[in-house]
Amino acid sequence: MAAPSDGVNCDEFAEFQELLKVMRTIDDRIVHELNTTVPTASFAGKIDASQTCKQLYESLMAAHASRDKVIKNCIAQTSAVVKSLREEREKNLDDLTLLKQLRKEQTKLKWMQSELNVEEVVNDRSWKVFNERCRIHFKPPKNE
């Protein structure tokens, strides 16, 4: 399940996290997906496991790329806001509202950056499970 990466609201971290949660559905359900679509040896003749694994591979690749784009886009947007607020703060050192806003944006930026680490763990887990079940049915292209 890929969500559109354009038009993502990066202003609210809770919305950002909720979007990622929805976008991670494919990774959350991969074990179930593989158990229900990739046959065990006793059922191998009844289902085209190579086609199923290929489709799952393509879905995972697309989902991971889409989430990566969303996360990096929001990091870039928030970084620009932080930079702008820092510059404004240098001109108005006495403005406590500005300082508060700067701190809030810096915190949000750190949280967004930490999502890159979460993403790495989620992706690694999904590829590990995928490879365990699909390695004999499907070989991903070498260039990826």
Notes on the protein architecture:
- With 144 residues, the chain is mostly helical.
- It has a domain at 49-133.
- It is built from 5 helices and no strands.
- It has helices at residues 13-23, 25-28, 30-37, 49-91, 96-134.
- The chain is elongated and about 70 Å long.
- Residues 1-5 have low confidence and may be disordered.
List keywords for this structure.
about 140 residues; mainly alpha; 5 helices; about 0% strand; elongated; MIX23; Protein MIX23
In short:
By secondary structure, the protein is mostly helical.
* Tally of contiguous helical segments: 5
* DSSP strand count: 0
Unreliable segments of 5+ consecutive residues: 1-5
Structural class: mainly alpha
Span of the ends, CA to CA: 20 Å
Q: Mind describing the biggest β-sheet?
A: none
Q: Which series of helices and strands comes N to C?
A: HHHHH
Write the layout of secondary structure elements.
Layout: H1 13-23, H2 25-28, H3 30-37, H4 49-91, H5 96-134
Helix pairs in contact: 4-5
Protein name: Protein MIX23
Family: Belongs to the MIX23 family.
Organism: Cricetulus griseus (Chinese hamster)
